[in-house]
Amino acid sequence: MDKIFKRTLVGAAVAFASAGVMAKQVGINSDFDVDVYGVAAISVVNYDTDETKISTGAVTNKSSGYDYENESRIGFRASKQMFEDVNVLMQIESGYVGENGDGATLGNRDTFIGLDGSWGKVRFGRMLTPMYEIIDWPYANPGLGAAWDWGGDVKYNRDRHGDMARYDSVDYNGFRFALATGRGDKDVEDNYFYGASATYKAADFITFHAAVETESDRQLKEKVDEAWTTCTTAAGCKDADKVDVNYGDRYKSTNAAAATMVDTFGYLIGFEASLPGGFGLAAAYKNGESEDLAAGGKTSEQSSYSIIGQYWNGPWGFKVGYAANEESKTGSVKNDDEDSIISGQIMYVHEGFVPYVRIAQREIKAEGKESDTFVVRVGLEYGF
To answer: Which CATH architecture is the domain 34-223+258-383 placed in?
Structure first.
């Protein structure tokens, strides 16, 4: 019995070792060039928010204390030559870890298969649109995203999106461009988007950016079906005009509403400049509109801008930024929904590690409320 046990144990050890060797050989002997990369990033942040109801002026403090935000992620890239001047490439990248790992699934961020060569690069899958790639960098850091990236009230661009085909050119003496198209929502008929961007490095110290995006038949809100609720008392049927005359104990809790379908168009122009003495400046302006196809072509429009200054002295860096969404308009009616963020950051770079401290003041208007939030964030990032 003891011999059988020993033989079983040795056999299991050999099998385990063999499996390890095989796994190792797959990684080493593969003729694909494989790269593992990622970012380790965590910060502790405190949001101190006073929310004011615009119609009454009532103020509520909605602060909940500090929180840890984990933006760590990992990705894998591989490539191999298929034909002369044609390489096959792929990438799969996880999302941020987040609070409990729900967003960290592989494929959450840029994940695609494509081809590249001296003629450029074409990819298919999930990626940043050309316009959003420029919105996000260099014009959102430090901490301007809640207004500049996604805080606008008029939706006229996608961000990271699947069902996309994208072409990126090679560098033509400082000029590069990108083109993309795809389905906005595969379940909505005739919903397609098209985007383009261009970057021109006019000199060593200045680069210009421009981008445009348009989309047809975008569904902003899904269709809502009529719904009825049973009430047990006459007082419970509070919406008398909606009471079902055939069933006195019911009232309509949800009115039927058609889906909100729009055509959108947006553009961006901006620049970034390296100035003498370690100073730098970046600024951008974007504007977009959304035409409601079911409301007689009524159009909503909004403009936004971002300005960022920075200064580097050896490993020390300082950034200050301001971003704002101007008041949107629907037809000729203003919507009282302007937003703004002012933010400052100090950071230190050493051996690839970047500890930083950031403070920001946010003023956001939405749904009849104005939120004033003071943000303090202390974090550490390391890219590999």
So the answer is: Beta Barrel (2.40)
